[in-house]
């Protein structure tokens, strides 16, 4: 099954990694460095600078030098206007200027200091509790059993390398705006790199910490990747189920704790409660993240330790599997690996079934019958190379978007002409009594966003 | 001043339009058709099909046939991987497939029926009032003096013709998400064309009507163009000032009612209260909108009747000026032309002053000192041609975005390295007591989004 999931190319890379026996020694060495970070500096005392300057072979698509992008619009034959040198003509504008990296250097981290997300805080529950008491007009529960949730997502401040990458980011945020509006959830869209050492997939950690500490009124922070889309607009998360846990991710206990499978859970869509435990988890999670040697070497450990993991630098998801699998006693009782619905749903097994779902089911299930989230892992439409054919990714992203969008449009009496079509058609006539319109999905005035009504007369 | 605003080219076009004397006859004829729509079918009886098939000269950039977009990435010299025929390589993907129009035809409107936004509703105040009474958990006022507001914006479901167009749409919606989150406002991002006859700038009318009728809980609908950005995150609209009006637009009474100046008001950012008056206004506003002969001919009337208007098809803004100027008694007492702050701020007179504003003022003024909205009229980054040089538009849009974004980032202790830079730098150190951080602008927990605290013990 893994071959089918990952492809022949990756299986060969895995085999190659196993054969590099000498890396084992370096991995053991790095384990010491990493464990020092997890358990606290001072217990081991080996600074990162002891590491040799090693070259590593990374998972190919992540490390190609990025060519400068020069886009030249082909002139159609019937174009009769002289467009050359027209400064108002976007077709002849040199977009290289937009895409090139800015000059200037990031602050250089001190190699003698172990990485830290920020000053250690040990009394966050008390600080937050006090604040909430003093600020009853910013309650952390909007209604009984309905926590205040902040959905956090984002993308690079640079234009995508590909012409349509930004268009899909735009559709993706519209999709999230729709779900969150229906469910009374606020959104934070990040386009700032807060910590240069934690670039790429690790950038979410400093961001999450900053938002938790700045917004004590937020009970749950919901991280969601930019390539994940909501496909069940009617599904409300089962908040009651999570009342005693602090971290919810889609995944399976056996795959994480027993197999240490690198895809045993997914960090593309998860909930994190705003409390001391979360700060401690972030601190424990972060050490494999700092880019460069630490991240590279940590990647090798993860490839060795986790089942099925290809060779590439450490990523946050693998690090989370490793953290939970090796420190279950510390974290496990507050982590819920949810497989009852698709808090994250791998697109590969979902997108061909949309028509079947429409035929047999309806929104509100959130699971295989009608997935809450369809997540386009590996498609990378903003980059240069994806792990899947471009045409397939874009076509399926359009279908997933329309599948979700139809549930919003039906509120207003419209639907897409097909799952492949941008165009919409009317499915319900206008009337003189719009408030009597059938609201099949209950999404026009959803119960999950109603405010509490004061019962005092 | 108009020349400086509009450019030499447009002044020449205005002069040319005046010289076409024979058009006057057609304009008079069209006035009859249009007035029939405004006053009600039946009073005149001349159907649109009486019009000859006329060709008109439109404002040039709106009517060029659009060339197919073929984007070919130039191969850098040091590229050593064979990218040709790699289906996973976005660089070699044929994006024409994405951009081409879909086949199929829109429903043909019946030429014998005058255009209408929907069945006439005359008791919306009663219907809405009843609904609000029955649904106290969806109040139209969030707090005393704080109406429930829905900000409505949107863009085409097609990727932009220009590689960076979608990137600027993405930044623009992030900017709106930030302002609305801080001010307790919900967002509706539209990407559906609900009525093929009302395409382009007129598409907002059917959308607005649909949203008002579907959301009785919304007190004010705030339409905002996709090329308008918030540049004062701290400015809360003066809702009390508008308690007796139904439509608020940036503009000047003299320029609209006395001069009939086509830019005497701006429909790129306006408030519309959810009531019967609004439905009636939309019905009165719509008749110049249906594309084709009606819109073309209406454009000629508007060019003739309004001061400074170039020759092009009827647009919603000119039509609004014309409507108010010719029917002041009907609408004027419920329209507030706001010039006390920049509900819409023309970018041309603002963007060079940002540094001066930072030096001398602070967020919260909303006016020339710190504009609420900077609106990039004429830039059209999603299209092929703008009215201004591309480089200038994109550079200034980046500056405006960063100017606004800095006000959000400062909540978290960061700022852009400069107004031109995507990169951010830390301006406040992390501490162990994040809730004691200085919140200069009061944006961390803004008063305008606090909920009402029940005073019952």
Automatic annotation (TrEMBL), chains A, B:
Its main location: Golgi. GO terms for cellular component: endosome; Golgi membrane; trans-Golgi network. It catalyses: Transfers an alpha-D-xylosyl residue from UDP-D-xylose to a glucose residue in xyloglucan, forming an alpha-(1->6)-D-xylosyl-D-glucose linkage. Its EC number is 2.4.2.39. It is a single-pass type II membrane protein. The keyword Glycoprotein applies. One of its GO terms (biological process) is xyloglucan biosynthetic process. It is found in: Golgi apparatus membrane. It comes from the Eukaryota. This is xyloglucan 6-xylosyltransferase. The lineage of its organism: Eukaryota, Viridiplantae, Streptophyta, Embryophyta, Tracheophyta.
């Amino acid at each position: 099954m893994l071959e089918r999931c990952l492809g022949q190319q990756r299986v060969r890379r895995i085999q190659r990694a196993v054969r590099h026996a000498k890396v084992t020694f370096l991995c053991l060495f790095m384990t010491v460095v990493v464990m020092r970070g997890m358990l606290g500096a001072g217990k081991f005392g080996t600074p990162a600078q002891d590491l040799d300057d090693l070259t590593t072979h990374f998972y190919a698509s992540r490390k190609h030098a990025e060519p400068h992008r020069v886009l030249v619009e082909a002139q159609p034959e019937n174009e009769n206007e002289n467009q050359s040198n027209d400064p108002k003509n976007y077709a002849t504008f040199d977009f290289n200027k937009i895409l090139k990296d800015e000059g200037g250097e990031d602050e250089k981290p001190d190699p003698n200091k172990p990485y830290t997300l920020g000053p250690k805080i040990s009394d966050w529950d008390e600080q937050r509790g006090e604040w909430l008491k003093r600020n009853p007009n910013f309650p952390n529960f909007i209604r009984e059993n309905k926590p205040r949730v902040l959905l956090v997502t984002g993308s690079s401040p640079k234009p995508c390398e590909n012409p349509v990458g930004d268009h899909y980011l735009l559709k993706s945020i519209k999709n999230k705006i729709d779900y969150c509006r229906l469910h009374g959830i606020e959104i934070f869209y990040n386009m700032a790199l807060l910590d240069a050492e934690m670039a790429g997939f690790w950038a979410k950690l400093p961001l999450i910490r900053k938002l938790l500490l700045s917004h004590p009124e937020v009970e749950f922070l919901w991280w969601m990747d930019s390539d994940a889309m909501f496909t069940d607009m009617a599904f409300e998360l089962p908040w009651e189920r999570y009342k005693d846990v602090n971290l919810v991710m889609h995944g399976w206990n056996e795959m994480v704790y027993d197999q240490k499978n690198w895809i045993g859970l997914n960090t593309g869509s998860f909930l994190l409660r705003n409390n001391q435990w979360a700060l401690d988890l972030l601190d424990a999670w972060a050490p494999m993240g700092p880019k460069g040697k630490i991240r590279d070497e940590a990647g090798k450990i993860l490839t060795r330790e986790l089942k099925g993991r290809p060779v590439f630098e450490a990523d946050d998801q693998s690090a989370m599997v490793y953290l939970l699998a090796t420190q279950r006693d510390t974290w496990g009782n507050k982590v819920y690996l949810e497989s009852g619905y698709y808090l994250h749903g791998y697109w590969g097994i979902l997108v061909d079934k949309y028509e079947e779902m429409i035929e047999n089911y309806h929104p509100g299930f959130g699971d295989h019958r009608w997935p809450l989230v369809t997540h386009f892992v590996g498609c990378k439409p903003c980059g240069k190379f994806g792990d899947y054919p471009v045409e397939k990714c874009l076509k399926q992203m359009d279908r997933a978007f329309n599948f979700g969008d139809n549930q919003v449009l039906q509120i207003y009496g419209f639907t897409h002409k097909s799952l492949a079509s941008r165009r919409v058609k009317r499915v319900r006539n206008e009337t003189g009594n719009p408030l009597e319109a059938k609201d099949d999905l209950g999404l026009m005035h959803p119960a999950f966003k109603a405010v509490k009504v004061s019962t005092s007369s």
